[in-house]
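Weekly sync, protein design subgroup
Attendees: M.S., D.O., the rotation student, P.L. (late)

Item 1: inverse folding check
M.S. brought a backbone from last month's batch and wanted to see whether the design step gives back something sensible before we order anything. D.O. pointed out we never logged the input encoding, so this time it goes straight into the notes. Structure tokens as presented (299 positions):
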């Protein structure tokens, strides 16, 4: 059994990838996966509506399947997918699963899904189950917290880790078999901050749901725009009306949201009902289908 050699990069969203050939080292030779066009690479690097298309899914899954198939020779590899599929953050895990199914890698791999609720204790127990019982060959995780929780175990057990994780680098430092599949918080905030400045906004009202990623997102914006105010919701409120009216009457230039499933769309809908015309922006959660639906045409 040959050892998987992960391609020589740490972040799939690294913009220095332009016009390079993506390959996996297999048995002393390079196995070509895909030549990335400049458009595809930019879609990975630049946050916005065009970021996460099918081409990214196909590329990512191609990396995993070819690399792991190389390792296991004729065996069909099993890839564990750890994410939240139910509850407050369930829409995002379901989106990952649907993306995998849409990409359809031709049956060359088996995907095993485990729900960790984006909770570290559950992440660890679910990962151990995937390794010890399901006998996975690699793991794909959908959250920074999950990546942090299982990274030391994955390294010890020599399980390649692929993570949609924008935050803390601890899961990736000194781990040759860990690859980040998402742009870093620093990259995202740099882009968002540039656009906010370009539009002349200085005082921002930020609404988030309690989560590591959303907290880092809001904190980064507040640090860059000191006049802003940030309100975190540990539980989903029935209505954002009071908060929105405060933002409307408080001299804010724009409203930023990074809330759990469906709440971003609810904010947009209530803004329209209250006839609040302040610009609305958000983290990538704003693009989720469940939020588009809950906005009822307001996004």
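Designed sequence read out in the meeting:
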């Amino acid at each position: 059994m040959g050892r998987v050699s992960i391609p020589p990069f740490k972040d799939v969203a690294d913009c220095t990838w332009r016009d390079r050939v993506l390959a996996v080292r297999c048995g002393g030779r390079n196995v070509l996966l895909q030549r990335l066009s400049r458009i595809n690479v930019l879609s990975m690097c630049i946050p916005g509506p065009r970021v996460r298309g099918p081409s990214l899914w196909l590329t990512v899954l191609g990396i995993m399947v070819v690399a792991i198939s190389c390792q296991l020779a004729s065996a069909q590899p099993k890839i564990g997918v750890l994410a939240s599929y139910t509850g407050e953050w369930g829409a995002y895990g379901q989106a990952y699963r649907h993306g995998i199914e849409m990409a359809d890698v031709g049956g060359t791999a088996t995907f095993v899904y485990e729900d960790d609720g984006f909770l570290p204790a559950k992440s660890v127990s679910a990962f151990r189950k995937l390794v010890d019982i399901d006998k996975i060959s690699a793991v794909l995780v959908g959250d920074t917290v999950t990546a942090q929780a299982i990274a030391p175990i994955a390294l010890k057990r020599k399980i390649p880790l692929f993570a949609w994780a924008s935050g803390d680098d601890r899961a990736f430092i000194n781990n040759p078999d860990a690859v980040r599949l998402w742009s870093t918080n620093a990259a995202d905030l740099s882009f968002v901050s540039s656009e906010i400045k370009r539009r002349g906004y200085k005082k921002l009202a930020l609404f988030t749901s309690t989560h590591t990623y959303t907290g880092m997102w809001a904190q980064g914006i507040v640090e860059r725009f000191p006049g802003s105010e940030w309100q975190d919701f540990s539980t989903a409120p029935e209505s954002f009306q009071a908060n929105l009216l405060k933002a409307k009457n408080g001299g804010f230039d724009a409203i930023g949201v990074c809330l759990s499933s469906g709440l971003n769309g609810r904010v947009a809908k209530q803004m329209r009902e209250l006839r609040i015309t302040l610009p609305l922006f958000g983290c990538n959660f704003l693009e989720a289908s469940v939020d588009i639906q809950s906005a009822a045409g307001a996004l």
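Discussion: Residues 54-72 form the longest helix (19 residues). Residues 1-55 have pLDDT under 50 and may be disordered.
Action: P.L. to compare against the previous round before Friday.
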